[in-house]
């Protein structure tokens, strides 16, 4: 590898920089690692072929011309071209086999312990942890947790238009298509927070449709799941309590659910534990009281065209409602 | 650059027919385009059928009468059509004129039955995907008949005019006959799709 | 078979076989997955055979050809047999290596 | 016998000058505005076509600069998301439908009749009609953009985003109907090219003597004929879904979202080869002229062309690897997509062999061709990468793919096209382009191109999706994006110099002479620019190179009439003379037919009844077009 770093500047870029939390080259999951190996293999082979072609071209341009004419020269050329064609066939064959073998290695059985329904919609992600016992089912938005080292089965659905579920550090993408159901199996090898983003153009705010996958040890995951199953916590401060009342009396409750209250709208994300998520508005802003206030005050400036309307609030109401939201851990 | 004459083509005819005629080839290419269109329509029909839990979706299969009459008429029209083509090749102006009148008739009458075919589908185009594809297929083929009918009518008028007795016009008549054969042959798989596949 | 027929058969056979498998490859895996059959693999290799036969016919008509242009056309048959046969072999490999149910 | 003596005037015993003046009288276009409108000379129509397509290229390029401005920094607010979506949709639609395909068709319409040695394209009136339809379709789309009503659903217009529910208004209808316009014009030219190549080749130009470029244009035309009906079916059913409530794409009523993708890509993938195969023909024609030896591997190249054309119909699902089809079926498309690398490789090897055996003369066209080989092979390699199902699941819909297809389309088609413009400009205008500006434009375009598009591969692997109007500062994409945006200015300046060169040379370039490159294909056997009748006498061909540049003699046929537009029809395989066919005279009816068709198509966006009432003027115009006027061309 060390010598190849001098030879292939492309490889330096590939192996030297992993490209952050949302990169196919920063592979942290079973599938992504297999894909990264395939990517590096094919890129190396192709780079070699490209270099060979360019070198032959350069040689052809620079060689001193003897201007061989006649049949001998022609026959030599025919042999060279034939060899090149045979090489092409062999290389293409090898790459195709590599591709098929990788596809085969990605196929995992149905021994997934966790199944999550991923409902993509303009322009946010709904993650539903279904259970036969509805009392322990719960849902979250734009952020979900998975146990490390376990296969997680994702059922991909779309509510409105086509979206595509993609966490490059964990696996390749798979589309969410209205009227169809796709399945993607994920497995994170290391604990961490991985970013994903909608990969299929889905309208105005396609750019702001991100989510986070939090992979954690089994015990942490179970603790998180148990906490998510709880109904919303009661506000602890007077300000937050006032915020709850504003929330219930304004149109907010018509679109959002806060379990344990009368708010049970379903067109927007479930906010029961919104304070426990690290971002709001599908990865747009970090969850702080300030960003919550900014978002609620004017969602259309921060994310033009999204489906959350501007609800007229006084500055007191805005402060109270943000406090309430932040407290929904 | 100097010309070195090596070939004299002055004895060649001023217009070729069949494979010697560019128009004949253009007719064939247009048939390829339209054939591709019909092929796609059939493919879409079967594609939608493969997705549907039952086929036809939410409707009884189409009633047979109008479609059967039209099909019989179209198939029968092949005979005069071939005759017209033969007369045109032999440049028999009078027979060609009569033949074109007959073919105009064979273009109009199927359209009358076609009017009754649409309600016989027992489904509206906006009911479901089944309705959409059968209306589209029927609509496409109606356009097909209509365009050839207009073509035949104009050609008939032309043959009765002073421009009629001309090798080029006879070639046009032959190409028109070729195209009508295509209209009829293209209908048969469409007919099978529309009327008999739902009965399988 | 006359060399004329062989020539045109060799032009049609390999592409035809390949178009067929490419299309069937979109339908048969569903059947294979449900019924545990191997129709996809079967059609892929049947098509390899057809393409090879096309190539051979082209070759036969090449040597039997009288005119320059006829040989030119026969050359296409041979080439189609090889190039499309290769594509079909790769399809065949896929049908052996991959599981029919995988989505 | 008597008839023959008093028969029509023939070219048999005329001296060259007298013959030329008589032919000029028969073939020339009448002066004045309506004369220009009525003109059916393939060279004039094709020149208009090429010019218009390059205007669209320039406009599309400006759109891409606007996108690069918006993406130069994270969360930039230069352009609103709505406008940005219109811009990238317009960029893709414009470049594919209004530039790439039309310009290649136009090159075919210009070059094919000259290269096969005939006097006009088959069905010249259809050719004129095709241009007017193309022009009106393009104007329609750009007018919509000017009115802030341009389509905003991507050039691929996936349903349900483009369906009635999620794309209200007329934007998407305009897109879908623009498709109808451009496909109509493309199909028309394809039919003309097929018939011209089949029936109007010079005597003796048997199948194995057809120039590679003509083969390429023939294969391209067949791809158009077989692929375009799919998109026309798709766009029409989309309009029906939106206008009259059919349910093709509505999953709730038995329709399917993937049906659209199948139809779109069944057209969309051959489309790439519709653009690329003519480029193969151009490279194969230009290269020999600058290395001073004939092309190596004529037969191999032609076979590779045709095989590529066939295989291009089995690649469409590789745009759909992530939609959830069975992996096994998808892998069949991996197989075909990988296998197509073999004919592509063969083409490259033939060109390398030609280079190897020849002595390169570094004129601008050759520079662009060397740049093409360098760049296109890279695009081919990334093509092999995205052909692999698992590889593609990581890079599909990312900037990696944006980089890949710009390598293939700009590197693989625009570089050869610019080479072709430098090469055939003298033929088209009678003037040479500047070698100095040509070199400047080559190096700026070449370097600017790689600096702009190579980093996009990395951005894609780093997880940057396509079609985003912005990205967030916490992602590590900002510096590369800024770099790309700055580099795009270099690329744009290269194109600017090319445009300046073309305009300057058109007006005041040095005269070219008949054969400035010492080439040996038939278009160089006549003057630059060619007279309206192309050739004084129809050439007769007896070898793959129809004439040798050193030789001052051209073997020709006589026996055509001079008082009417007459072309020679030959047999399909051996090109033996069959008939002396007339060629249509100038007519304003194609123009009126195009106007009537446009009114019907645009009206039908608003009301289905337009199809009924709008068809009547079309029928009238068509009857006017075809009704014999008792001219000499009517005789038989």
UniProtKB/TrEMBL annotation, chain A:
<feature type="signal peptide">
    <location>
        <begin position="1"/>
        <end position="23"/>
    </location>
</feature>
<dbReference type="GO" id="GO:0005507">
    <property type="term" value="F:copper ion binding"/>
</dbReference>
<dbReference type="Pfam" id="PF00034">
    <property type="entry name" value="Cytochrom_C"/>
</dbReference>
<comment type="similarity">
    <text>Belongs to the cytochrome c oxidase subunit 2 family.</text>
</comment>
<dbReference type="InterPro" id="IPR036257">
    <property type="entry name" value="Cyt_c_oxidase_su2_TM_sf"/>
</dbReference>
<comment type="function">
    <text>Subunits I and II form the functional core of the enzyme complex. Electrons originating in cytochrome c are transferred via heme a and Cu(A) to the binuclear center formed by heme a3 and Cu(B).</text>
</comment>
<feature type="transmembrane region" description="Helical">
    <location>
        <begin position="79"/>
        <end position="101"/>
    </location>
</feature>
<dbReference type="GO" id="GO:0042773">
    <property type="term" value="P:ATP synthesis coupled electron transport"/>
</dbReference>
<dbReference type="InterPro" id="IPR008972">
    <property type="entry name" value="Cupredoxin"/>
</dbReference>
<dbReference type="InterPro" id="IPR014222">
    <property type="entry name" value="Cyt_c_oxidase_su2"/>
</dbReference>
<keyword id="KW-0479">Metal-binding</keyword>
<dbReference type="GO" id="GO:0020037">
    <property type="term" value="F:heme binding"/>
</dbReference>
<keyword id="KW-0408">Iron</keyword>
<dbReference type="InterPro" id="IPR009056">
    <property type="entry name" value="Cyt_c-like_dom"/>
</dbReference>
<keyword id="KW-0249">Electron transport</keyword>
From TrEMBL, chain B:
<dbReference type="GO" id="GO:0005886">
    <property type="term" value="C:plasma membrane"/>
</dbReference>
<feature type="transmembrane region" description="Helical">
    <location>
        <begin position="64"/>
        <end position="84"/>
    </location>
</feature>
<dbReference type="InterPro" id="IPR024791">
    <property type="entry name" value="Cyt_c/ubiquinol_Oxase_su3"/>
</dbReference>
<dbReference type="Pfam" id="PF00510">
    <property type="entry name" value="COX3"/>
</dbReference>
<dbReference type="InterPro" id="IPR000298">
    <property type="entry name" value="Cyt_c_oxidase-like_su3"/>
</dbReference>
<dbReference type="GO" id="GO:0004129">
    <property type="term" value="F:cytochrome-c oxidase activity"/>
</dbReference>
<keyword id="KW-0472">Membrane</keyword>
<dbReference type="InterPro" id="IPR035973">
    <property type="entry name" value="Cyt_c_oxidase_su3-like_sf"/>
</dbReference>
<feature type="domain" description="Heme-copper oxidase subunit III family profile">
    <location>
        <begin position="1"/>
        <end position="199"/>
    </location>
</feature>
<comment type="similarity">
    <text>Belongs to the cytochrome c oxidase subunit 3 family.</text>
</comment>
<keyword id="KW-0812">Transmembrane</keyword>
<feature type="transmembrane region" description="Helical">
    <location>
        <begin position="96"/>
        <end position="113"/>
    </location>
</feature>
<keyword id="KW-1003">Cell membrane</keyword>
<protein>
    <submittedName>
        <fullName>Cytochrome C oxidase subunit III</fullName>
    </submittedName>
</protein>
<feature type="transmembrane region" description="Helical">
    <location>
        <begin position="178"/>
        <end position="197"/>
    </location>
</feature>
Automatic annotation (TrEMBL), chain D:
<feature type="transmembrane region" description="Helical">
    <location>
        <begin position="174"/>
        <end position="198"/>
    </location>
</feature>
<keyword id="KW-0349">Heme</keyword>
<feature type="transmembrane region" description="Helical">
    <location>
        <begin position="210"/>
        <end position="233"/>
    </location>
</feature>
<dbReference type="GO" id="GO:0022904">
    <property type="term" value="P:respiratory electron transport chain"/>
</dbReference>
<feature type="domain" description="Cytochrome oxidase subunit I profile">
    <location>
        <begin position="34"/>
        <end position="542"/>
    </location>
</feature>
<feature type="transmembrane region" description="Helical">
    <location>
        <begin position="298"/>
        <end position="319"/>
    </location>
</feature>
<dbReference type="InterPro" id="IPR023616">
    <property type="entry name" value="Cyt_c_oxase-like_su1_dom"/>
</dbReference>
<dbReference type="InterPro" id="IPR014241">
    <property type="entry name" value="Cyt_c_oxidase_su1_bac"/>
</dbReference>
<feature type="transmembrane region" description="Helical">
    <location>
        <begin position="437"/>
        <end position="458"/>
    </location>
</feature>
<dbReference type="GO" id="GO:0006119">
    <property type="term" value="P:oxidative phosphorylation"/>
</dbReference>
<keyword id="KW-1278">Translocase</keyword>
<feature type="transmembrane region" description="Helical">
    <location>
        <begin position="95"/>
        <end position="116"/>
    </location>
</feature>
<dbReference type="Pfam" id="PF00115">
    <property type="entry name" value="COX1"/>
</dbReference>
<keyword id="KW-0408">Iron</keyword>
<protein>
    <recommendedName>
        <fullName>Cytochrome c oxidase subunit 1</fullName>
        <ecNumber>7.1.1.9</ecNumber>
    </recommendedName>
</protein>
């Amino acid at each position: 590898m060390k010598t190849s770093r001098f030879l292939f500047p492309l490889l330096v870029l590939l192996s030297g920089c992993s490209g952050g939390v949302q990169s196919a080259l920063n592979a942290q999951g079973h599938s992504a690692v297999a894909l990264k190996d395939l990517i590096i293999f094919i890129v190396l082979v192709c780079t070699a072929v490209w270099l060979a072609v360019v070198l032959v071209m350069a040689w052809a341009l620079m060689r001193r011309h003897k201007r061989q004419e006649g049949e001998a020269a022609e026959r030599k050329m025919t042999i060279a071209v034939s060899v090149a064609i045979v090489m092409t066939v062999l290389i293409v064959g090898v790459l195709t086999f590599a591709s098929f073998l990788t596809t085969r290695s990605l196929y995992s059985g149905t021994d997934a312990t966790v199944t999550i329904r991923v409902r993509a919609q303009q322009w946010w992600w709904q993650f539903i942890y279904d259970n036969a016992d509805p009392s322990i089912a719960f849902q979250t938005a734009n952020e979900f947790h998975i146990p490390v080292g376990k296969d997680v089965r994702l059922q991909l659905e779309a509510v409105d238009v086509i979206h595509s579920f993609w966490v490059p550090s964990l696996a390749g993408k798979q589309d969410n298509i209205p009227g169809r159901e796709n399945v993607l199996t994920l497995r994170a090898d290391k604990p961490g927070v991985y970013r994903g983003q909608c990969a299929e153009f889905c309208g105005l705010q396609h750019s702001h449709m991100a989510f986070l996958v939090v992979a954690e040890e089994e015990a942490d995951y179970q603790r998180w799941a148990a906490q998510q199953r709880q109904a919303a916590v009661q506000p602890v401060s007077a300000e937050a309590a006032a915020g709850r009342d504003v929330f219930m009396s304004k149109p907010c409750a018509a679109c959002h659910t806060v379990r344990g209250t009368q708010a049970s709208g379903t067109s927007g994300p479930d906010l029961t534990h919104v304070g426990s998520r690290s971002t709001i508005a599908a990865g747009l802003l970090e969850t702080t009281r300030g960003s919550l206030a900014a978002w609620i005050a004017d969602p259309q400036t921060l994310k033009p065209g999204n489906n959350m309307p501007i609800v007229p609030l006084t500055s007191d109401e805005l402060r109270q409602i943000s406090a309430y939201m932040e407290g929904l851990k | 650059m100097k010309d070195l004459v090596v070939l004299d083509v002055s004895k060649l005819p001023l217009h070729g027919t069949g494979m010697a005629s560019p128009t004949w080839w253009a007719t064939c290419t247009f048939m390829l385009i339209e054939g591709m269109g019909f092929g796609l329509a059939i493919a879409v029909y079967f594609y939608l059928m493969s997705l549907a839990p039952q086929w036809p979706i939410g409707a009884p299969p189409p009633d047979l009468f109008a479609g059967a009459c039209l099909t019989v008429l179209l198939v029968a029209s092949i005979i005069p059509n071939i005759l017209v083509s033969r007369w045109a090749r032999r440049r028999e102006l009078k027979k060609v004129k009569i033949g074109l009148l007959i073919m105009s008739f064979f273009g109009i009458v199927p359209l009358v039955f076609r009017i009754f075919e649409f309600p016989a589908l027992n489904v509206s185009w906006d009911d479901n995907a089944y309705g959409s594809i059968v209306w589209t297929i029927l609509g496409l083929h109606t356009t097909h008949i209509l365009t050839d009918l207009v073509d035949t009518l104009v050609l008939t008028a032309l043959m009765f005019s002073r421009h009629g007795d001309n090798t080029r016009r006879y070639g046009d008549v032959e190409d028109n006959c070729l195209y009508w054969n295509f209209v009829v042959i293209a209908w048969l798989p469409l007919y099978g799709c529309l009327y008999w596949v739902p009965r399988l | 078979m006359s060399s004329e027929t062989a020539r045109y058969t060799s032009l049609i056979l390999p592409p035809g076989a390949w178009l067929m498998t490419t299309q069937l490859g979109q339908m048969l895996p569903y059947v294979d997955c449900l019924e545990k059959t191997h129709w996809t693999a079967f059609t892929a290799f049947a098509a390899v055979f057809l393409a090879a036969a096309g190539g051979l016919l082209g070759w036969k008509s090449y040597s039997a050809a009288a005119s320059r242009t006829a040989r030119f056309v026969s050359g296409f048959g041979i080439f189609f047999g090889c190039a499309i046969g290769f594509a079909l072999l790769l399809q065949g490999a896929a049908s052996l290596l991959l599981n029919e149910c995988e989505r | 016998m008597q008839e023959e003596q008093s028969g029509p005037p023939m070219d048999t015993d005329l001296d060259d000058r007298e013959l030329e003046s008589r032919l000029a009288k028969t073939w020339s276009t009448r002066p004045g505005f309506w004369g220009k409108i009525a003109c059916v000379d393939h060279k004039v129509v094709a020149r208009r076509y090429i010019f218009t397509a390059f205007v669209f290229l320039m406009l599309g390029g400006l759109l891409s600069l606007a996108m690069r401005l918006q993406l130069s920094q994270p969360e930039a607010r230069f352009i609103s998301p709505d406008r940005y979506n219109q811009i990238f949709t317009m960029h893709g639609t414009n470049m594919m439908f209004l530039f790439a395909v039309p310009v290649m068709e136009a090159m075919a319409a210009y070059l094919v009749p000259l290269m096969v040695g005939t006097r006009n394209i088959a069905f010249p009136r259809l050719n004129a009609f095709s241009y007017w339809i193309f022009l009106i379709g393009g104007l329609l789309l750009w007018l919509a953009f000017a009115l802030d009503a341009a389509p905003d659903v991507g050039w691929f217009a996936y349903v349900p985003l483009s369906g009635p529910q999620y794309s209200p208004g007329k934007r998407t209808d305009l897109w879908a109907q623009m498709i109808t316009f451009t496909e109509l014009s493309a199909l028309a030219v394809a039919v003309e090219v097929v018939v011209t190549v089949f029936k109007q080749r010079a005597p003796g130009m048997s199948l194995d003597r057809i120039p590679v470029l003509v083969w390429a244009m023939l294969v391209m035309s067949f791809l158009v004929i077989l692929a375009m009906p799919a998109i026309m079916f798709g766009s029409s059913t989309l309009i029906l879904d939106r206008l009259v409530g059919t349910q093709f794409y509505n999953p709730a009523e038995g329709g399917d979202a993937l049906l659209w993708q199948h139809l779109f890509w069944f057209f969309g993938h051959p489309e790439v080869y519709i653009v690329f195969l003519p480029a193969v023909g151009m490279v194969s024609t230009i290269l020999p002229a600058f290395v001073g030896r004939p092309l190596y591997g004529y037969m191999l190249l032609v076979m590779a062309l045709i095989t590529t054309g066939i295989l291009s119909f089995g690649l469409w699902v590789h745009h759909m690897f992530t939609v959830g089809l069975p992996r096994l079926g998808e892998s069949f498309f991996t197989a075909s997509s990988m296998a197509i690398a073999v004919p592509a490789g063969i083409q490259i090897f033939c060109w390398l062999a030609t280079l190897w055996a020849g002595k390169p003369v570094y004129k601008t066209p050759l520079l662009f061709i060397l740049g093409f080989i360098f760049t296109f092979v890279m695009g081919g390699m990334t093509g092999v990468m995205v052909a692999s199902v698992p590889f593609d699941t990581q890079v599909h819909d990312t900037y990696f793919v944006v980089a890949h297809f710009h390598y293939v389309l700009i590197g693989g088609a625009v570089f050869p096209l610019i080479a072709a413009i430098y090469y055939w400009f003298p033929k088209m205008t009678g003037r040479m382009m500047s070698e100095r500006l040509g070199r400047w434009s080559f190096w700026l375009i070449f370097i600017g191109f790689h600096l702009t598009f190579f980093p996009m591969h990395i951005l894609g692997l780093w997880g940057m999706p396509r079609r985003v109007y912005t990205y967030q500062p916490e992602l590590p994409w900002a510096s590369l994006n800024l770099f790309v945006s700055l580099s795009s200015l270099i690329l744009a300046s290269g194109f600017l110099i090319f445009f300046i060169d073309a305009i300057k040379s058109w007006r005041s370039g040095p005269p070219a002479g008949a054969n400035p490159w010492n080439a040996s294909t038939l278009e160089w056997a006549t003057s630059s620019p060619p007279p309206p009748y192309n050739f004084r006498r129809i050439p007769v061909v007896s070898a793959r190179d129809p004439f040798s540049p050193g030789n001052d003699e051209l073997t020709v046929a006589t026996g055509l009439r001079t008082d009417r537009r007459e072309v020679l029809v030959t047999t399909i395989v051996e090109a033996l003379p069959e008939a002396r066919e007339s060629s249509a005279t100038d007519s304003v009816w194609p123009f009126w037919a195009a106007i009537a068709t446009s009114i019907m198509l645009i009206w039908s966006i608003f009301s289905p009844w337009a199809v009924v009432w709008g068809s009547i003027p079309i029928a009238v115009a068509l009857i006017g077009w075809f009704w014999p006027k008792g001219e000499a061309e009517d005789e038989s």
